[in-house]
Amino acid sequence: LHARYVLNLLHETRKHLKQLPNISHVSTCYSEEVTVCGDLHGQLDDLFLIFYKNGLPSPSKSYVFNGDFVDRGKQSLEILIILFTFLLIYPKEVHLNRGNHEDHMVNLRYGFCAGLGAMSRVHGKKILRMFHNVF
């Protein structure tokens, strides 16, 4: 995606997240299930496998992602774009909890900052600032 679209997605995600309470309550009934995932750490293949086995988020398929979306793996940006897009499309079915890797200092140490800088030299710093603002 062009940087302008990434920044727009981040802006809309931030606006949405600011409206939410600090604690999300997710309930199920007998006909529904919730898939709980954690620690993707930039491994896009893991996210694709989860969606392959459990289905994509939809009004009938809820997900809770328990943080640590980024760092270590090489596809942190792609994971965040996918998760933020699903969050905006299905705000009642997709829930994102911040992990300890959604932190600027941890991102510096484990690679998210360097990965973004290498990916988008022109807009990398602006995109990174916006990600940290969303986190």
UniProtKB/TrEMBL annotation:
SUPFAM superfamilies: Metallo-dependent phosphatases. It is an enzyme of class 3 (hydrolase). It catalyses: O-phospho-L-threonyl-[protein] + H2O = L-threonyl-[protein] + phosphate. Its cofactor is Mn(2+). It comes from the Eukaryota. One of its GO terms (molecular function) is Hsp90 protein binding. Residues 97-102 form the Serine/threonine specific protein phosphatases domain. Its EC number is 3.1.3.16. Keywords: Hydrolase, Manganese, Metal-binding. Belongs to the PPP phosphatase family. This is Serine/threonine-protein phosphatase. It comes from Tachuris rubrigastra. The gene is Ppef2.
